[in-house]
Amino acid sequence: MTATKTRRLEARTDEQTEQLVADASALLHMSKTAFIEEAVRTAARKVVARADVTIMSADVFDSMMRAIDEPDHSPALADLARVPHLIGR
Amino acid sequence: MSTPSYRLAPFGPGLDLTGFDCGEEAYNAWLFNAAAQAHKTGSAHVSVLERDDSGGERVVGYFAVCPTLVVRDQMPKPMQRRMLRSTPGWLLAKLAVDNSLRSQPEQWGRQLLREALLAIIAAAERGGGAVIVVDAGNAGLVPFYERNGFTSTGGTDLRLFMKVATARAYLLQNDLG
Predict the structure, then answer these.
(1) Helix (H) or strand (E) segment spanning residue A53
(2) Which residue of B has its CA nearest to A77?
(3) What is d(CA B157, CA A56) in angstroms, rounded to the nearest whole number?
(4) Residue A31: inside a domain, yes or no?
């Protein structure tokens, strides 16, 4: 990516972490800035890729949240529990 | 010929995916092309069902689980500050079995679904999340999930849900005998 860099990110850190970043970036022949930028971008993309949203109707959501820790009555799950167990681990 | 055995394993290198066909091209393609990347990047946790017979081990089913945020729809702005708007959950994003396991008395699809629910219950114990969501993928699969305890989210897509508490109450109790 070659977008114009007009923004600044600052972070406080301890001496050990700074030295670790310096060592790692030197091993890769990268500047510390380039190394940190790449690492942060990779981590951020991972989080965004993981994000998934489920939209639930207001009625269903409110009803669910009123007793979120209480099991519902479910004959279907009782039946699923009785299916043969043939899968090992 | 010995009776084949079946086991659940995490997705990884060296799996024999040869010939896997669940009858849905999108689900086949996801296993062949996207599962490895999803597992590697951590965007989903993929588990496979392997059949071990005299010809070796072969993948005959899989499921993929990832976190999801369950969001309340149609929240009028003045109410947004006072009410809970979302809660974390787990999404069963994919679940498929090979055609060879379809319509068998062993009910392999339901067995694999139960394994997926147990995996989510375990994940919820470690990482929180009180809702299990499933993406049925196509309308034809909605009745399958309804028959197994899921109900509609009331949204416009093909997602259904159950509480982790409900799954735990029925499936763990049974597992403990």
Answers:
(1) strand A53-56
(2) B149
(3) 10
(4) yes
Distance in angstroms (rounded) separating the CA atoms of residues B75 and B146: 27
Q: Beta partners for B53?
A: B56
Chain A residues within 8 A of B84 when measuring between CB atoms: 65
A12 touches chain B (CB under 8 A): no
Structure tokens at B3: 């009776």
Identify whether A86 is part of a domain.
no
Give me the torsion for CA of B78, B84, B89, B95, rounded to 10°: -40
- Sort out which chain A residues have CB atoms less than 8 A from B74's CB and list them: 57-58
Evaluate whether residue A44 is within a structural domain.
yes
As for how many domains chain A has, the answer is 1
Note whether B171 and B117 are within 8 A (CB).
Answer: yes
Question: Which pTM was predicted?
Answer: 0.79
Which neighbouring-strand residues pair with B108?
Answer: none
First to last CA, chain A: 44
The pLDDT tens digits of the residues spanning B23-82 come to 999 999 999 999 988 888 888 999 999 999 887 899 999 999 999 999 998 765 555 555
The answer to whether residue A83 sits within a structural domain is no
Asked if residues B69 and B89 have their Cβ atoms less than 8 Å apart, the reply is yes
Query: For residue A23, what are the domain limits?
Result: 15-50
